[in-house]
Amino acid sequence: MLDIIVPIFSKTIMITIFVFVMLLLVDYINVMTKGRMKKAVKGSKTRQYMTASFLGSTPGCLGAFMNVSFYVHGLLSFGAIVGGMIATSGDEAFVMLTQFPREALILFGLLFVLGIGGAWIADKIAVLFNIVPCKECGLQKIHDIDKKHYFQPSILKKFHRLSPIRYVLIAFFVFIILLNLSGYWGPQSWSFDEPERIILISLSVIAVAVNATVSEHYLKDHIWGHIVKKHVWKIFLWTFFALLFVDIGLINWDLSEFVVANMGLVLIISALVGLIPESGPHLVFVMMFASGLIPFSVLLTSSIVQDGHGMIPLFSYTTRDAVMIKLFNLAFGLAIGIPLYLIGL
Q1: Which helix (H) or strand (E) holds 310?
Q2: Low-confidence residues of the chain, pLDDT below 50?
Q3: Closest CA to 114 of 322, 305, 345
Q4: How many structural domains does the chain have?
Q5: Domain for residue 322, yes or no?
Q6: Do residues 316 and 280 touch, judged by C-beta distance below 8 A?
Q7: What is the secondary structure of 72-127 as a DSSP string?
């Protein structure tokens, strides 16, 4: 059993590091540009569709959270929030980028286009059935930002008096870099055909630089309080158990034979699992696709229906709208996925 668990544990750590640093970069960029996002949303429905779908198709939950915030403040139509959630893949998007980057980018592009189309259809249906979107639900700030400056390289002058959190994060990534350079752990190839080692070291260097130069507020509230406490441990656990499920299933349960024999059922299950408003369950289908067990149509169906945990805030303020969005995305996901599966994609 250890010969299965140890490689899975090692791979899970590497995937989690990739995801953590990408989450960090997306959050950092989001903080620096957020003031301009609201200006981009205002305008015609076409602009709303494109903006919401673009935010949704960006990896992670931040784009979905921003869409929810815009929606409950009356800046997005019902169709636009539907399109944004169609395009959203949640934190699983980062895992897809590490496991199959080319296919992941194709998937994100397709979800962006489908989000725009789904938004237009949803607004037509909303008019037909007189669905009135939520107006000014009073949503509190979702990890909003204040006026503080986040890039503070001068903080290094006080290196001997930094917070324990900063020391821990910097030391962890320096340790990862040293382990990989020494050859004791991590990818060993420097080849551009297998760039995992180059990516791991580069991302670790970026993580050290960001953690060493951000303000104390950003470090504690954004990196530690949000990314580490709310995301990273969940990603680690879901990735580990998804990999374990696939590996043990292939060895002991004839998982590949079951999936091949019941692919239509697996597609339906992937859509139903997508109804769960949480990042994690979708990773099972991500790992099965990475292992060659399921076709692209099943992964696409799951990706259309699921939206990570981007919908959780909306459930807190308008359960009716949240349920309608999930049901529409379920129908839309099956309407797109089933024909693609039947033609062999």
Answers
A1: none
A2: 136-146
A3: 305
A4: 1
A5: yes
A6: no
A7: HTTSS-HHHHHHHHHH--BTHHHHHHHH-HHHHHHHHHHHHHHHHHHHHHHHHHHH
Q: Is residue 157 part of a domain?
A: no
Residue 16 within any structural domain of the chain: yes
143 three-state secondary structure: coil
Q: Give the span between the Cα atoms of 69 and 313, in whole angstroms.
A: 9
Task: Identify the burial level of 104 via C-beta atoms within 10 angstroms of its C-beta, where 0-12 means exposed, 13-18 middle and 19 or more buried.
Answer: buried
Cβ neighbours of residue 82 closer than 8 Å, sequence gap 6 or more: 118, 119, 122, 325, 328, 329
pLDDT at res. 316: 63
Cβ neighbours of residue 91 under 8 Å, at least 6 residues apart? 19, 23, 59, 60, 61, 231, 234, 235, 279, 308
Q: Give the structural domain span for 220.
A: 2-152+214-342
The answer to the question of residue 176 being in a domain is no
Structure tokens at 137: 């639900």
Q: What is the pTM of this model?
A: 0.69
3-state helix, strand, coil in the chain (%, to 5): 75, 0, 25
